[in-house]
Amino acid sequence: MKDVEYLERLEQAEALLKPQRVDVLRQLAEPRSCTEVAAVLDQTPQRVYYHVKRLVEAGLVKQVSERKVRAVSEGVYQASARSYWLSPGLVGRIGPRAARDELSLGYLIDLMEEVQSDVAALDRAAPELPSIGVSGEIRVEPERRQEFLDELKTTLQDLFTRYGGAEGDAFKLAVACYPKGEARD
Q1: In a 3-state reduction of DSSP, which class is residue 5?
Q2: How would you class 61 by CB atoms within 10 Å of its CB: exposed for 0-12, middle for 13-18, buried for 19 or more?
Q3: Quick one: which of 33, 35, 60 has its CA closest to 45?
Q4: Which InterPro entries match (predicted)?
Q5: pLDDT digit string, tens, across residues 133-171
Q6: 148: CB partners within 8 A, 6+ apart
Q7: What's the pTM value of the predicted model, to 2 decimals?
Q8: Short-list 113, 81, 90, 85, CA closest to 10
């Protein structure tokens, strides 16, 4: 089972739009039959099988084995991943792309889409994935905002210059700075 499945096909997203299918998918974190899932969700095995069949068609669930129960073959299914990311490209851009202004929300959204796609494409089975994630909150007085942004940009440009040679392992560095919204529960 993959850790993350990056969904880029519309059929995959559509398969997840039904809350009942998400419930079934959660039950299939471990291998189970439709009968077992039906008992947990208080549904009929036929109804669960209908949803499992759609999830299999979308590539979100796989049949992992088969067993005989009272002379009847019963499939055992498991989710293909522990979590699923929907590609922002599924909806696509509405209207023309604005100029790439580094201080715009549109640029930040494009950057996050690129990061999401890049991370999803990493080989999680690789023995080593040297990476780092850093997140923090800072507070900047409004009159010092431009000074902060200029200093951040200069610091990053210095790193790009120092480590931007043609030799060695290639890494991508993406930095996002945005106003912190209200806390969500």
Answers
A1: strand
A2: buried
A3: 35
A4: ArsR-like_HTH, WH-like_DNA-bd_sf, WH_DNA-bd_sf
A5: 888 898 999 999 999 989 998 999 998 888 887 788 888
A6: 138, 140
A7: 0.64
A8: 90
